[in-house]
Each structure stands twice: as structure tokens, then as C-alpha cells.
């Protein structure tokens, strides 16, 4: 009995460490990867509470078991606090289109194709459709460009940064684009795409597409990337968005950051952008092949004034990511957006400094 109690206590301590690590303000990849599995850790903690409760009722009443049960319960509450915000029990961050509301619609799909994916014909058939105004594709290399040339021709306006080894990013649009740029906000290895799309009613929407470096990714030297470059890229974009607060805009991409992480929530507060998943569902997208281990890392963020007509995940053939598609209507802005809290701005400044320092070190290496 004592052995079982101590085993439960050890497991509860391990889960408590994983739960607490994301609160550490560090870009070390070991810390930051703990941002991702909050739903899974929360489920494990709930299971721990149930098991501990059953064992206590069966007579395993000792200090170790009581402590284990308490730790499981605390961790379940903490993880649940992050995850529940994305479930239908929570108020929606972005409302659906009201019965009497009218606005210009924009349908966008963001898909990480996986540069090692060999199902080119199937992907081309999947993307060959009429319902998309805008298409953002991640990990596009020269091979993908050749295989998708028929799809590409259907989108008259394009912003493209074609790169090997999963670094490519393209934005294809049937809506007219202006002020288009390919930028490298922090790292020369990671392009981001920016422009303005003219909707059918004449108004314009700023569009940003990103694919920052994931924490834990192994580099050519066998070292693993920290999150600082990724975090700095998100903060820099947030600051740019905040400098134009009255502009309708949408931010999309495989951001390699979970929807509930500190960095993503900081991005939303600094930029005033909204996450349409809040109050609708997790919409976890990676890894596509393992539903119980998926995290929500492929994102579509919108500014105030957008309404959700439809939001869904789609199976991208052969990819290790599910795709995200959003159908939105742009109506009059209400001025209800997240705002910076406490030391958010100072935290953002530190993140940018550390990210630029890391990026310059990588380039020297």
C-alpha cells in the first residue's frame, strides 16, 4: 500500500513540475515545450484525482496519498483554467455573424503541407476548389511550386517566399493585394508575408502570414532551438499591429506556439487581435496522425469587426498538420479588443532583445 501511495505522489509531483514550468520566463526549449500539452496534462491530472479518490476510499489513507490527491487536483484546476477558455462553455471571443448583420466575406485556408510530403497530386486536387479567396501554404519548396502550378494559376495575386527544408511560405489570393512585402522580422531563415487585400465591398484588410521556428527543433549542429526567436517575431508583429489600431486585419500561420501559451496570449494583448477559437473549441492541428496528442498551433487571428461565418479544421493529405480554414465577414468595429496588462510591454521588449541576440548568434554560427 505504501509503495502505491508513494508512486502516486511521485507522479503527481512530475505533473506539477510540467504544469509549473511554463510560468518560468525562459526561452529554454525544455521549458517552452511544456506550453503545448496542457490538454493532455490536464486530462492526466483529472485521471489522477479519480484514482487517488478511489484509493483513499479503499483505505489508502496516508500522508503521501492525500498529498498526491491534492497535487493532482491543483494541477487539474490550473490546466483546466487554460483549456476551458477554448471550449463552448466559454464566451466567444469573436461573435458569429448576426442575422441582421452584413459584411464583406473573406474565406481563407492556412495549411502546412510538410516539405517531405509526397502526396502532391492528392494535395493539388484538395486545393483545386472555388470557395477560397485566399490560400496560405507553409513549407513550400520548389518541388511543391511545380506540383501546385495549376492551383497557383487560379490565384491572380501572390506573395511568395519559396525556400527548401520547410522554410517556404506563400500567400495566394483572388482578392487584389497591395503593399506586399516579404520580410525577415528576426531571423534571415524565417520569412513572413505582409500585404493588404481589397474585399469585394472596397474596404481593405491587412494580412500577415508567419511560420516561426519551433522550440526544440534540432539544428545542423545537433543543438535544439530555444523559443526566443519565435517569441520575438510574434512580439514585433504585435507592436506593428498596435501602431495601426483602426486597421482591419488577419494573422495566420503555423506559429509553432500553442493557443494558450504565454507568448500567444501576450501577442493578443499587445496587438489587440482576437482568437476565434475561444468559446468554440480547441481546433488542435498537430500532430495530425495522433488525435489524443494534438496541440492547437496553426492559427487564424482576426481584429475586432470580424464575425465568424465558419471555422473548421481540414485534413491536408499526407501532412503532419491539419489545416485551418476560416470564413469571416467584416462588419463595423466595436472597439472590444484585448489590451496589455501589467508588465506586458516590458516583457515584450525583453523578448525582442533576447530573440535578436539569439538570431544574430545563429547567423554567426
How many strands, which pairing sense, and closed or not: the largest β-sheet?
Answer: 6 strands, mixed
| Percent in helix | 25-40%
Read across the widest sheet, the strand sequence of neighbours is 3-4-2-1-11-10
**Number of helical segments with 4 or more residues:** 10
Mean pLDDT value: 93
Order of helices and strands: HHHHEHEHHEEEEEHEHEEEH
What is the assigned CATH homologous superfamily of the largest domain?
Answer: Endonuclease/exonuclease/phosphatase
Report on this structure.
The strands form two sheets. A six-stranded mixed sheet has the order 3-4-2-1-11-10, with no helix packed on it. It has a five-stranded mixed sheet with strand order 5-6-7-8-9, with no helix packed on it. The protein has 365 residues and is α+β, with helices and mostly antiparallel strands. The chain folds into two domains: 2-86, no CATH class; 104-359, Endonuclease/exonuclease/phosphatase (Deoxyribonuclease I, Chain A, 4-Layer Sandwich), CATH 3.60.10.10. The protein has ten helices and eleven strands. Helix 8 links the parallel strand 7 and strand 8. The radius of gyration is 22 Å and the shape is globular. The longest helix is centred in the first third of the chain and has 21 residues, at 63-83.
Question: What's the short story on this structure?
Answer:
The chain has 365 residues and is an alpha+beta fold. The chain contains ten helices and eleven strands.
Produce the secondary structure layout:
Layout (H helix, E strand, L loop, with lengths): L1 H19 L8 H4 L5 H20 L5 H21 L20 E9 L7 H8 L6 E5 L3 H6 L1 H4 L4 E5 L7 E5 L3 E7 L8 E7 L5 E7 L17 H15 L6 E6 L7 H10 L26 E5 L3 E10 L6 E9 L13 H21 L1
Parallel strand pairs: 1-2, 7-8
Antiparallel strand pairs: 1-11, 2-4, 3-4, 5-6, 6-7, 8-9, 10-11
Amino acid at each position: 500500500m505504501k509503495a502505491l501511495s508513494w508512486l502516486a505522489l511521485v507522479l503527481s509531483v512530475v505533473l506539477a513540475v510540467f504544469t509549473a514550468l511554463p510560468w518560468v520566463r525562459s526561452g529554454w526549449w525544455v521549458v517552452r515545450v511544456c506550453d503545448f500539452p496542457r490538454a493532455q496534462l490536464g486530462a492526466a491530472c483529472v485521471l489522477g484525482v479519480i484514482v487517488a479518490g478511489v484509493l483513499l476510499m479503499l483505505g489508502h489513507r496516508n500522508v503521501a496519498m492525500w498529498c498526491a490527491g491534492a497535487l493532482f487536483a491543483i494541477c487539474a484546476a490550473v490546466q483546466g483554467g487554460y483549456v476551458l477558455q477554448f471550449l463552448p462553455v466559454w464566451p466567444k471571443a469573436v461573435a458569429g455573424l448576426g442575422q441582421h448583420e452584413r459584411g464583406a466575406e473573406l474565406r481563407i485556408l492556412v495549411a502546412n503541407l510538410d516539405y517531405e510530403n509526397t502526396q502532391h497530386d492528392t494535395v493539388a486536387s484538395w486545393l483545386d476548389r472555388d470557395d477560397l479567396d485566399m490560400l496560405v501554404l507553409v513549407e513550400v519548396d520548389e518541388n511543391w511550386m511545380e506540383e501546385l502550378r495549376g492551383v497557383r494559376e487560379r490565384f491572380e495575386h501572390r506573395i511568395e517566399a519559396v525556400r527548401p527544408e520547410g522554410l517556404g511560405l506563400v500567400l495566394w489570393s483572388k482578392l487584389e493585394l497591395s503593399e506586399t512585402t516579404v520580410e525577415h522580422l528576426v531571423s534571415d531563415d524565417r520569412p513572413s508575408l505582409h500585404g493588404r487585400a481589397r474585399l469585394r465591398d472596397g474596404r481593405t484588410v491587412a494580412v500577415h502570414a508567419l511560420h516561426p521556428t519551433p522550440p526544440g527543433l534540432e539544428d545542423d549542429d545537433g543543438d535544439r532551438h530555444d523559443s526566443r526567436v519565435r517569441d520575438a517575431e510574434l512580439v514585433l508583429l504585435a507592436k506593428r499591429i498596435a501602431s495601426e489600431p483602426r486597421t482591419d486585419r488577419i494573422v495566420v500561420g503555423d506559429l509553432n506556439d500553442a493557443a494558450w501559451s504565454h507568448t500567444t496570449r501576450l501577442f493578443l494583448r499587445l496587438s489587440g487581435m482576437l482568437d476565434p477559437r475561444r468559446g468554440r473549441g480547441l481546433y488542435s492541428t498537430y500532430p495530425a496522425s495522433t488525435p489524443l496528442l494534438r496541440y492547437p498551433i496553426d492559427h487564424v487571428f482576426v481584429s475586432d469587426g470580424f464575425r465568424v461565418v465558419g471555422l473548421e479544421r481540414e485534413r491536408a493529405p499526407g501532412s503532419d498538420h491539419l489545416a485551418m480554414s476560416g470564413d469571416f465577414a467584416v462588419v463595423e468595429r466595436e472597439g472590444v479588443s484585448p489590451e496589455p496588462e501589467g508588465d506586458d510591454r516590458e516583457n515584450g521588449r525583453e523578448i525582442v532583445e533576447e530573440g535578436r541576440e539569439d538570431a544574430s548568434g545563429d547567423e554567426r554560427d
